[in-house]
């Protein structure tokens, strides 16, 4: 089996490539910038926004599976539908909207993995790093007053890559479904208390009605039933995040 992972050197893309490689899949990563080394078999540099370039690469590589972590526009998804001739298109919706453009009728083999806020080592968002820095420095953390005790949409990057690899497994049928993945039953309060235990300090929460809300909780029912997805333990994720935080002194300056 051969997989082409657009956005393979990225945050979720790297986790996906690692999981595909672990499963013995020939994994070709793609991005705009050349990457001679990484967690993939080989790398291609091209502009996926250019449909002619996309068509050329798909014709040359002939991937069985296309995993797309860089569909930032509906037109880019539509270009894939027009040009991909392989057996499975897996679209990660963390890249943005676009999955609504996939054909609803049978004939094009697609599966969508819809991700909430994703955290882990190398997180480009820095949201969790800011929370860690505030905890570490004993600063109050503003949380949305009406929802910080409710489950939120949050996932470990390793679980995100794992879910994409499960969706790419050709032994499972292409379902033309959207699957939500992430932690189950973890509230923002749970996250902050767990982070506090890792840091060794009790979080000082400041509930505020005007605070930015977090993504809503995910429903794992379909991902469990069809993909066999199960989330990791939150503590395992936080151990990785804490190691990343401690290994990068500049993060301690985050506010």
Strand tally is 11
Q: How much β-strand is present in the residues?
A: 15-25%
Enumerate the spans where pLDDT stays under 50 for 5 or more consecutive residues. none
Topology as H/E string? EHEEHEHEEEHEEHEHEHH
Q: From the helix content, strand content and strand pairing, which structural class follows?
A: alpha/beta
Report the total helices: 8
- End-to-end Cα distance, whole Å, is 45 Å
Radius of gyration: 19 Å
Instruction: Please state the average pLDDT score.
Output: 91
Kindly report the spatial arrangement of strands forming the biggest sheet.
Answer: 3-2-1-4-5-6-10
The biggest sheet, with number of strands, parallel, antiparallel or mixed sense and barrel status, is:
7 strands, parallel
Q: Helical residue percent?
A: 25-40%
Shape: globular
SSE map:
Elements: E1 2-6, H1 11-22, E2 26-31, E3 42-45, H2 51-61, E4 65-68, H3 74-83, E5 88-92, E6 110-114, E7 117-119, H4 127-136, E8 141-144, E9 154-156, H5 157-167, E10 178-180, H6 188-199, E11 205-208, H7 221-227, H8 234-246
Parallel strand pairs: 1-2, 1-4, 2-3, 4-5, 5-6, 6-10, 7-9, 8-11
């Amino acid at each position: 089996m051969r997989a082409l992972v657009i956005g393979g050197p990225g945050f979720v893309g790297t986790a996906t490539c690692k999981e595909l490689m672990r499963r013995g899949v020939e994994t070709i990563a793609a991005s705009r910038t050349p990457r001679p080394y990484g967690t993939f078999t080989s790398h291609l540099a091209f502009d996926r926004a250019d449909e002619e370039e996309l068509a050329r690469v798909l014709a040359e590589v002939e991937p069985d599976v296309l995993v797309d972590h860089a569909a930032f526009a509906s037109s880019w998804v539509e270009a894939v539908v027009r040009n991909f001739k392989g057996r499975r298109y897996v679209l990660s919706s963390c890249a943005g909207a676009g999955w609504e453009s996939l054909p609803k009728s049978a004939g094009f083999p697609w599966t969508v993995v819809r991700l909430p806020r994703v955290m882990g080592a190398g997180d480009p968002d820095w949201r969790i790093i800011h929370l860690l820095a505030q905890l570490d420095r004993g600063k109050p953390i503003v949380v949305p007053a009406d929802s910080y005790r409710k489950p939120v949409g949050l996932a470990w990057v390793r679980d995100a890559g794992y879910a994409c690899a499960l969706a790419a497994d050709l032994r499972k049928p292409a379902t033309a479904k959207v699957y939500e993945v992430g932690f189950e039953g973890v509230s923002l309060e749970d996250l902050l208390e767990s982070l506090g235990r890792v840091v060794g300090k009790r979080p000082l929460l400041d509930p505020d009605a005007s605070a930015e809300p977090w993504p809503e909780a995910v429903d794992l029912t379909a991902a469990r039933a069809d993909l066999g997805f199960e989330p990791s333990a939150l503590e395992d994720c936080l151990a990785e995040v804490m190691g990343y935080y401690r290994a990068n002194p500049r993060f301690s300056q985050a506010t």
